[in-house]
């Protein structure tokens, strides 16, 4: 009852002579501190907004320009060349003695704003140059060095997260000729002569009859919108999809592989949640450093805005993404119960020790789920239309609406699981089980509509399941890198494994969310659960740590690590299936305003020639020298395609947008229909490391993560995610479906492993000296040879 008394803000008694009001000093203090914190937050946001708004200039530069212009009033030299006298002022001000001063200030302000826009558009013009990305690794031309120097000069000092947004160029619309030529080249190795000739006819007919009109509308959109792709991509690829997002869209990210900072579930969750709140505070203030290629070229940060306080809301025809501001609570799920936990007290974040106390209270709570509550979240795992109808019918009023609003308005969602997970070298398939738990869990213990669900296990391991529509994996990965580093190296734990700091037992207990779920709604929940369970049980997953060699040795072979891996995947795919297939590799376009992704079609003519040479399928046997030459040609081709995709010259987003325009204009195009209906039987993605400064991998080799993964894209294909960790580790996440008799994730993992070794073998005797190094790198990680995450 103590907490109940503390929660009472005031008491009053009605008496004949009036009302006796008694206020709680503690509550009044908390209200005061909360208000003070809110005003400080607004002031900081305003200040940082101004700094980002005038970047690359600074507010102090305005004063310099004003003083410089004011000097014309007291010296014979007029730097304005007489233009100050031409500044118009209202008649009432023209008769005052301060007219000259006001005119000088107004002119100086106008000049200052003009200089800001000049600097900004100069930087935008510089950032539109992408020749640097096509230069050989380790070599930089004189022109690129001059360009880099100019970019650094125009970029200003100490930029904030959103400082460069207005200076980023727009994504260009490729020419129809280039796109069609690139498309035909990409399908040439996949089609026989007759099929290819038919595709050429369709492409030529489209080019001659419909393409010009569709392209004109697309160019018009590119002039009007900040990005001609991203809004349509979010709407039509994600939000209009009516199939379940669990497995089919959501992705996951793992915890540290070899290290668990504490085995106390509540303590680990307390530290991680606190680190996330720190990250969110810096994000809201725009205080994170912008991500920059070469340490100079800025990347778009738009996607980061919706990381917290965001939920995908189901609809009958399309979903929407709801983003709120300044949410002060999270919702926790444990053993079928939903709890609301406030994240602030007295105008500050709860400390890690206070969060640990709150989570431990939930873990100790013996109450049972209410009717229909246990599997309620299965609605977010099933098809979107039943969920949308159930939401309208059963959650639009009363106590159900209040509780659902609490979930959808929460900063994020936390699931306290009751079964341990994580990578264990002594347990067979532990990585597979861990990945499946993160990807779909029990189908009712994650709120798949939240921007992300933080998952906590009883052995101290953590992980994330993320909804995909609002952002791509590197955005969540950036946050997770910060959180892991803050958790392990800044917050820390006591010797007993608890969070550091005093325990505040006076906090109000977490609040149970209340539900009144009728039988009809319970039936809908069960139906969604059964359909989601069928999807989850069909996921065949295999995780593989490749430790024989890594990025360090691949670079000594003078090739791109990503191209090396992609060619290994092509070789593994051919060995596994006996045929080549359309291959998707995700590339980012964040060098442009509001950029997201582009597709690299990795199955090229050059890759096919290399794979056939490796398998001796050509007209003559190939020796290693020939294979190596073919490998280098294929790797160079892949790198060039990747660079084209990054610089806005990819083909798939252009074709996608042309198709959307054709649907709006009711123009039938057999060519575009054919292109957009082709299945990606091999879908791949690399998880990048973005903040290498957070953890010194050489000093802390066990503080590495296995990255993350996603479900299979095609019913009869594979999904492969990989992360290149440090110099000596590559982790693969492989998914397919049990229902397909032709795919097997473990078999494909073996094929990848063998393909990696076979390709590296081509560099002997050219690189014989690396043989001993490979053996040294093969030492198991638990013996101390380590690397780093994300």
From TrEMBL:
<dbReference type="GO" id="GO:0005741">
    <property type="term" value="C:mitochondrial outer membrane"/>
</dbReference>
<keyword id="KW-0276">Fatty acid metabolism</keyword>
<dbReference type="Pfam" id="PF00755">
    <property type="entry name" value="Carn_acyltransf"/>
</dbReference>
<keyword id="KW-0813">Transport</keyword>
<comment type="similarity">
    <text>Belongs to the carnitine/choline acetyltransferase family.</text>
</comment>
<keyword id="KW-0443">Lipid metabolism</keyword>
<dbReference type="GO" id="GO:0006635">
    <property type="term" value="P:fatty acid beta-oxidation"/>
</dbReference>
<feature type="active site" description="Proton acceptor">
    <location>
        <position position="468"/>
    </location>
</feature>
<feature type="domain" description="Carnitine O-palmitoyltransferase N-terminal">
    <location>
        <begin position="1"/>
        <end position="47"/>
    </location>
</feature>
<keyword id="KW-1000">Mitochondrion outer membrane</keyword>
<comment type="pathway">
    <text>Lipid metabolism; fatty acid beta-oxidation.</text>
</comment>
<dbReference type="GO" id="GO:0004095">
    <property type="term" value="F:carnitine O-palmitoyltransferase activity"/>
</dbReference>
<dbReference type="GO" id="GO:0009437">
    <property type="term" value="P:carnitine metabolic process"/>
</dbReference>
<keyword id="KW-0012">Acyltransferase</keyword>
<protein>
    <recommendedName>
        <fullName>Carnitine O-palmitoyltransferase 1, muscle isoform</fullName>
        <ecNumber>2.3.1.21</ecNumber>
    </recommendedName>
</protein>
<dbReference type="InterPro" id="IPR023213">
    <property type="entry name" value="CAT-like_dom_sf"/>
</dbReference>
<feature type="domain" description="Choline/carnitine acyltransferase">
    <location>
        <begin position="171"/>
        <end position="754"/>
    </location>
</feature>
<dbReference type="GO" id="GO:0015909">
    <property type="term" value="P:long-chain fatty acid transport"/>
</dbReference>
<keyword id="KW-0472">Membrane</keyword>
<dbReference type="InterPro" id="IPR042231">
    <property type="entry name" value="Cho/carn_acyl_trans_2"/>
</dbReference>
<keyword id="KW-0812">Transmembrane</keyword>
<comment type="function">
    <text>Catalyzes the transfer of the acyl group of long-chain fatty acid-CoA conjugates onto carnitine, an essential step for the mitochondrial uptake of long-chain fatty acids and their subsequent beta-oxidation in the mitochondrion.</text>
</comment>
<keyword id="KW-1133">Transmembrane helix</keyword>
<dbReference type="InterPro" id="IPR000542">
    <property type="entry name" value="Carn_acyl_trans"/>
</dbReference>
<dbReference type="InterPro" id="IPR039551">
    <property type="entry name" value="Cho/carn_acyl_trans"/>
</dbReference>
<dbReference type="InterPro" id="IPR032476">
    <property type="entry name" value="CPT_N"/>
</dbReference>
<dbReference type="Pfam" id="PF16484">
    <property type="entry name" value="CPT_N"/>
</dbReference>
<keyword id="KW-0808">Transferase</keyword>
<feature type="transmembrane region" description="Helical">
    <location>
        <begin position="100"/>
        <end position="119"/>
    </location>
</feature>
<keyword id="KW-0496">Mitochondrion</keyword>
């Amino acid at each position: 009852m103590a907490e109940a008394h503390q929660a009472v803000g005031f008491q009053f008694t009605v008496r004949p002579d009036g009302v006796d009001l008694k206020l709680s000093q503690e509550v009044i203090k908390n209200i005061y501190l909360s208000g003070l914190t809110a005003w400080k937050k607004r002031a900081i946001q305003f200040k940082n907004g101004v700094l980002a708004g005038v970047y690359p200039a600074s507010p102090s530069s305005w004063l310099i320009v004003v003083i410089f212009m004011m000097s014309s009033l007291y010296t014979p030299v007029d730097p304005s060349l007489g233009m100050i006298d031409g500044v118009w002022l209202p008649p009432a001000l023209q008769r005052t003695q301060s007219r000259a001063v006001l005119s000088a200030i107004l002119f100086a302000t106008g000049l200052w704003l003009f200089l800001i826009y000049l600097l900004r558009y100069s930087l935008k013009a510089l950032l539109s140059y992408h020749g640097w990305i096509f230069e050989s690794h380790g070599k930089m031309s004189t022109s690129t060095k001059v360009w880099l120097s100019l970019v650094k000069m125009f970029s200003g000092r100490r930029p904030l997260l959103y400082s460069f947004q207005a200076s980023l160029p727009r994504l260009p619309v490729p020419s129809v000729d280039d796109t069609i030529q690139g498309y035909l080249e990409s399908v040439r190795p996949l089609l026989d002569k007759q099929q290819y000739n038919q595709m050429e006819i369709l492409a030529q007919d489209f080019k001659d009859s419909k393409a010009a009109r569709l392209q004109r509308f697309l160019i018009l959109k590119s002039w009007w919108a900040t990005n001609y792709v991203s809004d349509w991509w979010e709407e039509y690829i994600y939000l209009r999809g009516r199939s379940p997002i669990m497995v089919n869209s959501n992705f996951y990210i793992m915890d540290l592989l070899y290290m668990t900072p504490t085995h106390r579930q509540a303590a680990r969750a307390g530290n991680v949640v606190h680190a996330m709140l720190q990250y969110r505070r810096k994000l809201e203030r725009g205080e994170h450093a912008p991500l920059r290629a070469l340490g100079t070229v800025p990347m778009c940060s738009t996607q980061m805005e919706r990381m917290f306080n965001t939920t995908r809301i189901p609809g009958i025809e399309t979903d929407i993404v709801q983003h709120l501001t300044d949410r002060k609570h999270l919702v926790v799920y444990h053993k079928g119960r939903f709890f609301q936990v406030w994240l602030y007290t007295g105008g500050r974040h709860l400390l890690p020790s206070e969060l640990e106390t709150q989570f431990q209270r939930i873990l100790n709570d013996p109450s049972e789920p209410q009717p229909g509550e246990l599997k309620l979240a299965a609605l977010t795992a099933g098809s979107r239309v039943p969920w949308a109808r159930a939401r309208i019918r059963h959650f639009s009023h009363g106590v159900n609406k209040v509780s659902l609003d609490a979930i959808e308005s929460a900063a994020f969602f936390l699931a306290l699981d009751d079964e341990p997970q994580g990578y264990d070298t002594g347990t067979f398939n532990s990585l597979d089980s861990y990945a499946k738990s993160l990807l779909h869990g029990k189908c009712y213990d994650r709120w798949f509509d939240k921007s992300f669900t933080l998952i906590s296990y009883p052995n101290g391991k953590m992980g994330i399941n993320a909804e995909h529509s609002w952002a791509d994996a590197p955005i969540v990965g950036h946050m997770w890198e910060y959180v892991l580093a803050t958790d392990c190296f800044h917050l820390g734990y006591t010797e007993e494994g608890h969070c550091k700091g005093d325990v505040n037992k006076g906090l109000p207990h977490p609040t149970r969310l209340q539900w009144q779920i009728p039988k009809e709604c319970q039936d809908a929940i069960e139906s969604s659960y059964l359909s989601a369970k069928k999807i989850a049980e069909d996921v065949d997953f295999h995780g593989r740590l490749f430790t024989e060699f890594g990025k360090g040795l691949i670079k000594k072979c003078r090739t791109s690590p990503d191209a090396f891996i992609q060619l290994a995947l092509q070789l593994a795919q051919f060995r596994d299936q006996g045929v080549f297939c359309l291959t998707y590799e995700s590339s980012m376009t964040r060098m442009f305003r509001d950029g997201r992704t582009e597709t690299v079609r990795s199955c090229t003519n050059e890759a096919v020639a290399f794979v056939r040479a490796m398998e001796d399928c050509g007209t003559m046997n190939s020796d290693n020298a020939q294979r190596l030459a073919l490998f280098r040609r294929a790797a160079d081709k892949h790198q060039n395609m990747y660079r084209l995709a990054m610089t806005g010259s990819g083909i798939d987003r252009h074709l996608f947008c042309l198709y959307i325009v054709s649907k709006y204009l009711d123009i039938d195009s057999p060519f575009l229909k054919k292109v957009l209906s082709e299945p990606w039987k091999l879908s791949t993605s690399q998880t990048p490391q973005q903040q290498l400064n957070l953890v010194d991998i050489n000093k802390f080799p066990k503080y590495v993560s296995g990255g993350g993964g996603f479900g299979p894209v095609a019913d009869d294909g594979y999904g492969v995610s990989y992360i290149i960790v440090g110099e000596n580790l590559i982790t693969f996440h492989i998914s397919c479906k049990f229902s397909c008799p032709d795919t097997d994730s473990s078999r494909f993992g073996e094929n990848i492993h063998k393909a990696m070794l076979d390709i590296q073998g081509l560099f002997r005797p050219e690189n014989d000296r690396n043989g001993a190094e490979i053996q040294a790198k093969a030492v198991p990680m638990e013996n101390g040879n380590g690397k780093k995450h994300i």
